[in-house]
Each structure stands twice: as structure tokens, then as C-alpha cells.
Specification:
about 325 residues; alpha/beta; 10-stranded mixed sheet; 3-stranded mixed sheet; 11 helices; about 35% helix
Length: about 325
Amino acid sequence: MTNILILNFITLFFILSGCNNGNDDRGEDIYDSPKKGTIYISVDESFKPVIDEQIKVYRADFPEANIIASYKSEADCFRDLQNDSTRMIIVARKLKKEEFEIFKHNLDFYPKNFRLAWDAISVIVNAASSDTVFSLKRLRELVTAQSTGKTLVVDGLNATSTVLYLQDSIAMGRPLGPNVKGVQGSKAVIEYVANNINAIGFVGSSWVGNEYDPEQVAYFGKVKAALIEVKNDSLQRYAKPSQATISNDQYAFVRPIWGIVKEHTNTTQLGMGFMGFMRGERGQLIFRRANLVPAEMYFGLRHVIVGEREDSSKVK
């Protein structure tokens, strides 16, 4: 009788295992690899265009790798990481020391931070607007309602990375004024500015800087990037966000893109596979194509002297 009970228990175990088929309750593969499986990631909505492209190219190489991205506020991304509903987030800041310690206590290992690229906050205005040049002082007055006559539009009112950037780096900790209007996402910011001549919008530069994206090209006739006072003593007093002005520390509103992965260092899973791709040459080129500055690789132009070689020991 005992042997029959044991046999029945083993049979039931394998039946239940087969029904699960290696997936957790969300359909995410427990045993995945860089080439195959399913994971859910949470991404700051202001980085959506470039991360969509990263996923598209990665899946072209590995069709069995399903990366399901949810685009949301920065606070919601960190909440997902804390609540164990995702193994990866892509946001505008890395984990703080106290956050590391919480994960170390709960998981017995530290998540990993990877800086992927440098992004910028683009200040956009209506294509018909003649008010296209802003000093840092004037922008600060506008976002704190010390100067009126403009509606400032952001991708939400609470806990988005763009709103936090305005509060910390432009308003310098002061409350945002009543003329700051929150809308549902970056695309809604662009559309609001396109339809209102007195509006000023703040969006991640990957939403408006990619000349290879047909949807963004369609915006070019409706909105345009404003010139912002540079933050150093360059001869160029005002600048738009570009790879040159970001790399040369001229454009004032620059922020990093961080990837944070919650996978053990002893495993090679889909999260680390996708992160490795974004840090590699092809992934870094995708960031560059989106008019961002890659953090891991340099693709700039170098000056060289080309001349005739007199002999094998003399190369100019």
C-alpha cells in the first residue's frame, strides 16, 4: 500500500509539472536563456521609441525570445522591481545605496546597474512659434509660475522622470507652477504642443530626434526644438540637444539611461542576454541612430592626417 501511495504521488507531481511547462503564474519562463524564453520588463515611458527599436532588432535575431515591455512612470518601474513583478527595468537613474541593501537582504544578491546611453530632455515649441530661445533663468521662472503667458506640458504630474527632472534640475526644488500641465505620455505632449502655439513641451529626445523614424519625421513640420542656454562658457551660447552638445557638456538638460537587472550573476538568462545586446556594438548603434549618446562605445569622428608613405617606417 505504501508503494502505491508513493507511486501515485510521483505521478501527480509530474502531471502538475507538465501543466506548468516551466512557466510561472504570469507566463514568464522560469528557465530561459539569452536566445529563448519570455520576460516582462518595465521601462520609463520617455524612452519608449528607442527601447522599442532595441527589442525589435533583438527579436529579429532571436525569434523565440519574447521581451514584453510595459511603459510607465519611473516610480512605477522601481515599484515593479521591488514587488518582484519584473526582472529588469530601464530608467533614468541607478539604484540608490539603501535600495541595493533592501534587495541584498531579500534576494541574497545585488541587482546590477548598467549605464546604456545619455539622453536629453528636449524643450519643444509649436512650429509657428517665434519664441524659440530660452535662458535657464527664464525656464526656471516659467516652470515655477514666476513668468506667465505660456503653458508648460509634461508627460504626467506625478513621479515621471521628466517631472522629477523639472522639479530637481530646473525648478531647483521649488513647486511647479499652476501653468504646468500634465498629459498622458510623451506622444500627448507632442500633440498638445503641435496644436497650441503658446505651449512649451518637455520630452525625452528619443521621441523627437530620430530622423529615421517616419512617425517622428511627421512631427517635424508641427513642432521644433527650442534653443537652450548652454551650461558652460562655450562660445556657442544656446544649443539644441544633439550628440555633439551632449558629449561636449554643452546642453543643459542631460540624463543617463540605466538598465537594472535582477538576475543572479551565476545564471545566464534572457534579461542579461538582452542587456548585453544593448551594451554591445549593435545595441549602442541603435542608441546612436536615435540621436542619443552611447555610454559603452564611442562612434565619433576622429581627425587623421592622410599623406604619402615614404617607407614602411614613416606613416603620417
